[in-house]
C-alpha cells in the first residue's frame, strides 16, 4: 500500500517529532507529492523533500518568534477534546444536580398532596358533622341537666 495516498487524506498537513538522540526536530509535510511513491513499510529518509529538520536552537527561535508575532496565540492545537470533555463532565454534574433537585421537588409535592388529600367540600362536610356532634353533646348535657333538675325537684317535693 502506498503511504502517500493515506497521508493525503489527513486533516493536519504537518507532523513534528523530536529526535532525543540528535536533539533535532523533524517536521513532515504529509501532503507533499514526494510521499506518494513511498510504501507503508518504507522509512522516509531525512533528505526527502517532505522533511524539514531543525536543530533544538532553531526550533526554540522559531517558537519564540511565533509567540512574539502572535501566531501561537491564534494556533489551534488539536480538536479541543479535552475542553469538550471538561464541558461534558460539568454538564453531567449539572444533570445529576438537577435530577436530585427534581427528586426532592417530587418528594415535597407528594408530601403536600398527602397532607391535602381532602377536597374543600369534604373539609366543610367534616366541620359540619363535627359541629353537629358538638350540638348533640350540648343537647345531651342540657337534657341531663334538665332531668337532674327535675329529679331534684321531685325529691324536694317528697
Q: How many helical stretches?
A: 5
Estimate nothing, just give the exact number of structural domains.
3
The span between the termini is 135 Å
* Oligomeric state: single chain
Q: Roughly what percent helix?
A: 55-70%
Tell me the structural class.
mainly alpha
How is the main sheet built? 3 strands, antiparallel
**Shape label:** rod-shaped
Order of helices and strands: HEEEHHHH
How much of the sequence is in beta strands?
5-15%
Mean pLDDT: 79
Q: Can you describe this structure?
A:
This protein is mainly alpha-helical and 158 residues long. The chain folds into 3 domains: 3-74, no CATH class; 81-117; 120-158. The chain has 5 helices and 3 strands. Strands 1-2-3 form a 3-stranded antiparallel sheet. It is rod-shaped and about 145 Å long.
Task: Provide a concise account of the structure shown.
The protein has helices at 3-8, 56-69, 71-74, 81-115, 120-157; strands spanning 14-19, 24-29, 51-55. It is mainly α. A 3-stranded antiparallel beta sheet has the order 1-2-3.
Task: List key phrases describing it.
rod-shaped; mainly alpha; 158 residues; 61% helix
Provide the fold topology.
Layout: H1 3-8, E1 14-19, E2 24-29, E3 51-55, H2 56-69, H3 71-74, H4 81-115, H5 120-157
Antiparallel strand pairs: 1-2, 2-3
Amino acid at each position: 500500500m502506498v503511504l502517500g495516498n493515506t497521508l493525503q487524506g489527513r486533516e493536519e498537513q504537518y507532523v513534528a517529532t523530536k529526535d532525543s538522540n540528535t536533539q533535532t526536530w523533524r517536521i513532515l509535510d504529509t501532503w507533499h507529492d514526494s510521499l506518494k511513491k513511498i510504501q507503508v513499510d518504507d522509512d522516509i529518509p531525512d533528505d526527502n523533500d517532505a522533511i524539514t529538520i531543525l536543530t533544538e536552537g532553531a526550533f526554540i527561535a522559531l517558537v519564540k518568534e511565533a509567540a512574539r508575532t502572535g501566531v501561537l496565540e491564534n494556533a489551534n492545537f488539536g480538536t479541543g477534546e479535552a475542553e469538550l470533555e471538561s464541558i461534558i463532565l460539568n454538564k453531567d454534574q449539572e444533570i445529576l444536580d438537577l435530577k436530585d433537585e427534581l427528586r426532592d421537588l417530587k418528594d415535597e409535592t407528594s408530601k403536600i398532596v398527602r397532607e391535602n388529600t381532602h377536597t374543600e367540600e369534604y373539609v366543610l362536610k367534616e366541620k359540619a358533622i363535627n359541629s353537629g356532634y358538638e350540638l348533640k353533646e350540648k343537647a345531651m348535657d342540657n337534657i341531663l341537666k334538665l332531668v337532674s333538675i327535675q329529679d331534684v325537684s321531685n325529691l324536694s317535693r317528697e
